[in-house]
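Data deposition worksheet. Section B asks for the primary sequence of the deposited chain exactly as it was used as input, without tags or linkers unless they were present during the calculation. Section C holds the resulting structure in token form. Section D is free text for depositor observations; keep each observation to a single sentence. Incomplete worksheets are returned to the depositor.
Section A, Depositor: J.P.
Section B:
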Amino acid sequence: MSGGDSIAIPTVDLEKLHSYAVSVKRNFQELQRQWDQVKTIASKSLLPSQILRADDVVVPRHALQQLAAEADQVKTLIPKVVNTNMLSARAKLNNLEKDLEKAKKERDDWKTEVIHWKTQVETAVTDVQREKKCQLELRVDVQELTNQLSQQSDFCSSLGAACCTLLWRVSRQEETIQDIVTGSRSEEFLELVSTSVQSYLSAYKDDQWPDQKTDEAIFIIALCGISTNIAASAYGREHLATSSQGRQLVDTFVSFVSEGPPGKSANMKVLMLMTLFNISINQKGAKYLQGKPGLLPLLAWHLKEEHHHGCRANTLRLLLSLLADEATGVRLMHELKENLSTSVLQQLTTNSQADIRDLALDLLMDIRRFDNEQ
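Section C:
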């Protein structure tokens, strides 16, 4: 091999290449001849329009083979998929059928319950209607009984006012007082007085105070008047000061003086204060009254707030009577001075009523005498 671009090829190799070239040429010529024969035969046997139609499509063989393979695969998979879907659908269908049966059962249960409650409602409605009818009848009966009770109450008030007014007049006699106190119903009578006064005060102290000319007011005033007449008797004072019903009556009168509206209840207070004064004349009665806490402040307040002549006069009498006892006079005088200024008494000494002037002056002199002694 020389140093240029040429390559030295052996002679044997050249001969082989030449032989290959001749063989290739010969084979190509043979294929060309066969192809010409095929074209000649095809052109003689079939027209071009007979080979392919206008809507025919030429599909390669390998595409047909692939399509056939996919079709076989689809045929194999379809039963599996269909069977799986059918099983799943069947299971869902079974579940749906169970749910449907459950829903039907629940619906039947609800229907049964609705029928039950409907029956209950109908029974309740019937009961309510019956109750309404009964209530209406009872309301009519209550109204009738209320009217009857009101009539009986008015009658009893009228009868009580008349009877007690007569008894009040009769009780002015000493013999009558002894008969009342020693009678078998004396304790019941005193309890009746206390209960009636308490009920009257409870009914009207927070409401409009009734006219004192009504039968009910006259009844209460008459009871207080009878009590005053009983306390005016020595025998009666002793009974009121020692018996439990008598002391209950004293407590009731003290409460009424405290809670009764000033001015409006003056007619009743006059009699109650007179009763308390009469009881204070008795030694046991005075001791009971002097031992009641808050009585002196109450009387001092009442003397300033109540402007009725009779109430003020009886309050002053009661104060003088309670302070007359030497054993308790000092204590009560201190208590009175803490709650009643001398200026109030000095003002009362100029009152237009002579008895109030005299009583206020006596009380003022007792206070000054007490101050001098101290």
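Section D:
Residues 334 and 367 are 9 Å apart (CA to CA).
The first helix runs from residue 11 to 45.
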